[in-house]
Amino acid sequence: MDPAQQPMPDKMADKFDDDDYPAYTMGRAAEMLGTTPGFLRSLDEAKLITPQRSAGGHRRYSRYQLRLAARARELVDEGIGLDAACRIIILEDQLEEAQRLNAEMRQDH
């Protein structure tokens, strides 16, 4: 069987499906977002995203963090200050989570 056709081990497949798995380096994340590493560092300083660190101390970002960073970039590009953009995103995220929990509670009753 061709190695490319062999099924992935479950543990590895879980990482591909995990939105919180820190799969992206700072350089790759900045490239994907069309921004600079400095912008990503500023999001860390603003406490919007806290990337995990590799064994060598390099920042590693998850898909979830990249979505937050993309939203921050969108707001900043619209002229909203970085601190305000981060606060908006945090509130949007909290609202989405509250709505999800509310929907779950309704289903349970």
Structure summarized in a few sentences:
The protein has 109 residues and is mainly alpha-helical. 61% of the residues lie in helices and 6% in strands. The chain starts with 9 loop residues before the first helix and ends with a helix.
Percent range for β-strand residues:
5-15%
Structural class: mainly alpha
- Bin the helical content: 55-70%
Total beta strands: 3
The number of helical runs is: 5
Q: What's the shape?
A: globular
Sheet with the most strands, sense and barrel status: 3 strands, antiparallel
SSE order, as H and E? HEHHEEHH
Describe this structure in words.
There is one protein chain. This protein is mostly helical and 109 residues long. The protein is globular. It contains five helices and three strands; from the N terminus they run H-E-H-H-E-E-H-H. Strands 1-3-2 form a three-stranded antiparallel sheet.
SSE topology:
Blueprint (H helix, E strand, L loop, with lengths): L9 H8 L6 E2 H8 L3 H9 L6 E2 L5 E3 L1 H15 L4 H27 L1
Antiparallel strand pairs: 1-3, 2-3
Helix pairs in contact: 4-5
